[in-house]
Design goal:
Oligomer: single chain
Number of helices: 3
Shape: globular
CATH class: Mainly Beta
Number of domains: 1
Largest sheet: 6 strands, antiparallel
Structural class: alpha+beta
Strand content: 25-35%
Order of helices and strands: EEHEEEEEEEHH
């Protein structure tokens, strides 16, 4: 899927479990996409800024299940490693480490299960989606949340590789919300 030489991407799909809406669009995991630079946080922020995404914060990932009903989110791992669960309580737990990038479509549940002491991640959002909300599974009207997620505009570019990156092809056909 990737059109960037020497780089790969993994796609992960998570269905609506009745509490966590998730998305019909796949989560994208870019293993080791950030280079050997010492300042991976700065590298990720610069790439996102070049490609229409706003890097907004540096820190960790909440340790409780949550999702964003009104924004897509890119997470660039700058230091350390973490075990994160994607897709809600019945989702998949995986390890992310320095250099990895995760792109979560709106509605995708995520939480940090454990992390190294030096773990640092940068969060970025497509332009126009910087005022993201944080919801927990089962909060509010599920039907209304699904409608909100379906209305979130697709980003014009991949956060780290622009028009040539894997995101435009992977998200080119929005499937109906389940």
């Amino acid at each position: 899927m990737s059109q960037v030489p020497g780089k790969s991407v993994q796609t992960l799909h998570f269905g609506d479990d009745g509490a966590t809406p998730n998305s019909a669009l796949p989560v994208l995991l870019y293993p080791a996409w950030l280079g050997a630079a010492q300042d991976k946080a700065g590298e990720f922020e610069a790439l996102c800024s070049q490609h229409g995404w706003s890097p907004l914060w540096r820190g960790g990932i909440f340790d409780y299940h949550h999702f964003h009903p009104n924004a897509h989110e890119a997470l660039g791992v700058a230091r350390g490693q973490a075990r994160v669960t994607l897709g809600g309580q019945a989702g998949q737990t995986l390890t992310i480490k320095a250099g990895d990038v995760l792109v979560l479509p709106a509605g995708t549940g995520h939480r940090c299960v454990a992390h190294s002491d030096d773990f640092l991640v940068v969060g970025a959002y497509p332009h126009g989606q910087e005022d993201y909300e944080i919801l927990r599974p089962g909060s509010g009207s599920h039907a209304r949340t699904l409608m909100r997620i379906a209305q979130v505009p697709l980003p014009e570019q991949d956060p780290v590789a622009g028009e040539r990156g894997p995101l435009p092809a992977a998200w080119s056909k929005r499937r109906p919300v389940r």
